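Translate structure to sequence.
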């Protein structure tokens, strides 16, 4: 059975790709450069940031976090990695700081996974953070847990 889309095809610009001599046209080269700039981002592509972790209750004894983000205009793509060496008394959820303040008028969500159990994570963007819980709403932290998440949101 063939899978078909009911959406109309994406319109592409009507520019010549090659000239009479078989060389790439100047217009097509400029089009490719524009796409490259879009994908790399005006600010130089992926950028590192150091997320701050805040549990809903208690305290993490030992945890590290790293993150990367990519911004094109108001679209922000974020990936984080958290290693909870020793959970301590932390419970409820873990808030991870964001690299760019979000537009809070929209409900932004994302997904991830805990690397030890492969249990799914639910990510909810709010004010200046993303709230991390297991898919079922329970706390994702334990000694040795690795939390990986990726999400997209609109900047303020």
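Result:
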């Amino acid at each position: 059975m063939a899978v078909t889309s009911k959406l109309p095809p994406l319109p592409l610009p009507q520019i010549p790709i090659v000239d009479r001599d078989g060389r790439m046209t100047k217009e097509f080269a400029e089009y490719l450069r524009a796409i490259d700039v879009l994908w790399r981002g005006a600010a130089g592509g992926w950028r590192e940031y150091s997320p701050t972790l805040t549990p809903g209750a208690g305290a993490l004894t030992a945890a590290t976090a790293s993150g990367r983000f990519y911004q094109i205009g108001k679209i922000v793509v974020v990936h984080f990695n958290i290693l909870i060496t020793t959970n301590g008394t932390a419970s409820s959820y873990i808030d991870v700081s964001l690299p760019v303040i979000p537009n809070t008028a929209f409900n932004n969500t994302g997904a991830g996974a805990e690397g030890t159990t492969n249990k799914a994570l639910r990510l909810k963007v709010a004010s200046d953070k993303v709230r991390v819980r297991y898919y079922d709403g329970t706390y994702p932290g334990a000694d040795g847990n690795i939390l990986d998440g990726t999400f997209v949101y609109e900047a303020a």
